[in-house]
Amino acid sequence: MRPDMPIPSNNKERVKIEAVFTGVGGQGIITMGTILGVACSKIGLNIITAETHGMSQRMGMVDFFVRIGDVEAPLVPQASADIVVSLEMIEALRSVRHLKRCGWLLVADIYIPPPYVENVPSRKDIVTVLERLPINSILINVEEIVEKLNDSRVVNMAMLGAFMAIEDVSKIIPVTLVEDVVEERLGPINREAFGMGYKQAVKKIKDGDLISRCAKTNV
Amino acid sequence: MPKRKTILGEPNSIAFLLGNEAIARGAIEYGIGVAAAYPGTPSSEIVESLASVASDLGIYVEWSVNEKTAFELAYAAAMSGVPSLTAMKHVGLNVAADPLMTSAYTGVKAGFIIVTADDPYMHSSQNEQDNRWVGLHAYIPVLEPANPQEAKDLTYLGLEYSEKLGHPIILRSVTRVSHARGLVRLGPLRPPRTVGSFPREPQKWAVVPAHARKMKIDVLRRWREIEDVFAEFPYNKIDDSNSNILIVASGIGYPYAKDALKIVGVKAKILKVSTPVPLPRKLVEKAVNGIEKILVVEETDPVVEMQLKSILFDLHIDVEVHGADYLGRKGELTIDRVAEAIAKIAGVSWSPPKPIEVPINVPPRKPILCPGCPHRATFYALIMAARELGVDPIYSGDIGCYSLGIDPPFNAQDTITNMGGSIGLANGFSHTVKNRPVVAILGDSTFFHAGLPPLLNAVYNRAPMLVLVLDNETTAMTGFQPHPGTGLTAMGGKGRKILIEEVAKAMGADYVDVFDPYDVRKAIESIKTGLKVAMDGGVAVLVARRVCSLLAARLGLARDRYFIDSNRCVGCSVCTNILACPAIVIGEDNKPRIIESLCSGCGVCAQICPFQAITKRG
């Protein structure tokens, strides 16, 4: 038999989400994409992701591209991401180049200055800059989640939870489905982190507790 | 190492697979009995995945010492009727080029697929060679998948066509196929064929000139046959459209072209090419009917474009052809690059959206040696030893994590060209630069891969040098694969453990020693002795042995933590300026402190602090 059967694509023609997950090598960014991909595979929703290995893992910056729905190629076009999730504050600044106007930037309050580099912006500098950008940005208090769960490795799942709080995402990928995949693959602590990240982001969006808000959106 | 058993999913189910896992799946769906490789980004996960299921399937999978050996092993399997796969990064194919060039002459009995994972943009490589040229050069056809699903499907078909044609086949992947993940519909698994036979047929397998001349005639005949067969290849297709513009898109060029056409809002006919070498003439003839302009979209070099122009010339078809002139021939394709080229050929105006400007300087974050990396300790000792002897060595570097020694504060990789090139180039420098000692710096896996012949040459031809082998007891950069020095095999079995120092002694090196880079004073003394041997005209081999700190952390071996006593610290900056461990940062009082969550407990900083201000916790 020729292995050339097509993928079912019930949603494929109708939706498109462009996202970039970013942070520092070793933070578990690829795992976020794998969880999302497995969830999409269960509902036959097209997803393609791209990552880099090797040299870039040694505490360097990591950009992980996620494209969902009516897409073919693996890389998000310039300044076109609907959503950027950054697991680190300085990388959040760098990742703004991927974001379209009025796109969502979800930033973990984790701050890892690159070693032996001068003029590194502080947490406060970063928030001040983000405040003025034409985007919607939220600071997720992940340090609090890490502390509550007493596990520093849950940052990635907390931020995947925050990603799922964006309505354009949750209307095509059920939050409970992703939650179940998190538990199945990574256990109950990660499920809890996912849930906490999700709830925090949902609340901040609902309360309008954003760093910056884009004029064009109706949040 | 993570288990990758997802590749054993049920037939007809959909799995979310890395392109490399999909290649592995395609190979086991065909029923390969043998796979062999040497790791290299972006190819490593192919054989890593196969190794993780080898025992379940009863197939033989190994990490070979280099690509040539891996190639030969898989080649012989296919000669004996066992279908096989070998995989390597693009530059690895250079190492395997000798048997590869002849494999087209002999052909094979069972399916034989050679996977080359090319690395455009050089994410983790020294060049961005396009290995589709190798296909043209060696008379070996090349398949080029567009995504993970095709990576699986073309691996399967490549093996099938290889067996049918009795000819090896190259599968050319690129980073954005090998390291893309996507949904893959799985096919059924055929039982593997693991046992071969080998009737005596030297006229077929022994390429003496009399045989080779006959074989060349046969190769040329097969090459024409392959071109005809490829004209009907099921993954080549024409997406018709009422347009006088044709886009010829090879491999990953196809998805970029599809997305780019949508963004620009242009209609064009597309010839999707999955068989870039040889480009089938009949397919081109069919596609160019009624076409006025052609844009070739392919990643890296104009391999399809040049063949296309040659075919059009022979057919007396005069159309405008663009490709590398619009798209360039460096780096990776992007949707934007392809969209700009499409807009240009269609005569419409389009430019990508401008990124939002961030009004602050964002500091770079380059890859660095990890906290506790034994290589950092060795580089520190090397710099100190040279300083204490008052010499300025040439640091002939190599491919691996230790390439990062090129950066400050060490600046200790003066050349980096190819695997084993550290000792190879040192052979040359030692004969031409007489007033400076030459230090060849390479890793354990690299030593076994390509360090042995140039070391033997140095000893034999009397090329004075210090060979410093940074032995972190694994192939760290590509994901901790075993090698002869570990004594473990790909399938988790026990092999024979080979010690680098024993090899060096057997080769006749003048001085051989082993030190622990975490013991700083001993390390400096050992390197000073090695440098003196080299300056006296000898060949010294030093093995700096200490397990990779990432691997140590994974194995639960790194439990100690250090801290800086701020009362003793005077802020002299020796730990930050000369050692530069990323776990040490300068605090607000301008004194260093250790981030204990990053500290791996190597204790090197405590040994070098002139004021004994750094101590172990607890």
Structure characterization notes:
The complex is a heterodimer of chains A (219) and B (618). Chain A is an alpha/beta fold. Chain A has a single domain (16-108, 124-207), classed as Pyruvate-ferredoxin Oxidoreductase, domain 3 (3-Layer(aba) Sandwich). Helices cover 39% and strands 20% of the residues of chain A. Chain A has helices at 29-43, 89-95, 123-131, 142-149, 155-164, 167-170, 175-186, 188-207, and strands spanning 16-24, 47-50, 61-69, 81-86, 99-108, 136-140. In chain A, helix 1 packs across helix 7 and helix 7 (175-186) runs antiparallel to helix 8. The longest helix of chain A has 20 residues, at 188-207. Chain A is globular, with a radius of gyration of 17 Å. Chain B is an alpha/beta fold. Chain B folds into 4 domains: 5-231, Thiamin diphosphate (ThDP)-binding fold, Pyr/PP domains (Rossmann fold), CATH 3.40.50.970; 237-346, 3-Layer(aba) Sandwich (Rossmann fold), CATH 3.40.50; 374-554, Rossmann fold (3-Layer(aba) Sandwich), CATH 3.40.50; 562-616, Alpha-Beta Plaits. Helices cover 39% and strands 17% of the residues of chain B. Chain B is globular and about 80 Å long. Chain B starts with 13 loop residues before the first strand and ends with a strand. At the A-B interface, helix 1, strand 2, helix 2 and strand 5 of A face strand 1, helix 7, strand 8, helix 11 and helix 15 of B.
Compact overview of the structure:
The complex is a heterodimer of chains A (219) and B (618). With 219 residues, chain A is of the alpha/beta class. Chain A has 8 helices and 6 strands, in the order βαβββαβαβααααα.
